[in-house]
Specification:
The chain is of the alpha/beta class. It contains seven helices and ten strands.
């Protein structure tokens, strides 16, 4: 794991992600990527899709998670987010969107088979206010081999979604979601995590400097040798080792 603190983590992360995509595509026919959503990823993805000399037609896209019970027309749908922020701007032709209105077990099985069919070259992620990685809330399952899981969302996670403006109140936030598993996410050859804002500072410190634990799901990033964590001054403010 490598941690970088800067005034503009989204730009730094986009520079690395674009360079990695060019390198991957120079050496093979296609690149397989995992894309995260949420407010923390907005500027990073906006900058990334504007980068030149990336042949997006040779990129195959998966995303980390989706709420159960809402469809792509809902403003909080992650499939909609991916479509609007990545697919439309880049013209990606190969993508796998999780359908929140279909049978969740079948979606998890079908998309999980596609995801696990070949290695993931590059994964984007964030860390939640409760330390979650994707929608793996604490205590997370670090053992399952399933590529996608049906998970229950805890109250802290659901409150974060309200606080970010995706839902009007807690009662409107779905209680379950489809999420990539921890083990599947950690199989990515390279990970780029963008985690800005003061509200993430406690989770960042617990996950990056605390014990690796299911109670701080993002702590598993410590075990990945090619995971890059991009923080701003606020999100990194509680780290003891802040000289980065």
């Amino acid at each position: 794991m490598h941690v970088r603190i800067s005034d503009d983590p989204a730009r730094s992360a986009a520079n690395q992600a674009s360079a990695s995509l060019r390198r991957i595509l120079a050496g093979r026919e296609r690149a397989r990527i995992l894309v995260a959503t949420g407010n923390s990823q907005l500027r990073f993805l906006e900058l990334l899709v504007q980068k030149p000399h990336i042949d997006w037609t040779r990129v195959e896209l998966f995303h980390l998670d989706e709420y159960i019970g809402i469809g792509i027309d809902h403003k909080a749908s992650f499939a909609r987010y991916i479509r609007d922020k990545v697919i439309v701007p880049t013209g990606i032709e190969r993508y796998h969107l999780l359908d929140g209105l279909a049978d969740p077990e079948e979606v998890a099985r079908r998309e999980g088979e596609a995801l696990a069919a070949a290695p993931i070259d590059l994964a984007f992620a964030g860390i939640g206010e409760n330390g979650h990685l994707a929608f793996n809330d604490p205590p997370a399952d670090f053992e399952t081999e399933k590529p996608y899981l049906i998970v229950n969302l805890d109250e802290a996670c659901r409150r974060q979604q309200v606080g970010e403006g995706w839902f009007a109140d807690l009662s409107a936030v779905p209680a379950r979601a489809i999420s990539i598993s921890i083990r599947q996410l950690m199989r990515a050859e390279e990970m780029i995590c963008v985690v800005p804002e003061l509200r993430k500072a406690r989770a960042v410190a617990d996950c990056l400097e605390g014990a690796v634990s299911v109670d701080a799901p993002g702590s598993v990033l410590q075990t990945h040798g090619n995971a890059w964590i991009y923080l701003d001054r606020e999100s990194g403010s509680l780290l003891r080792n802040s000289d980065r």
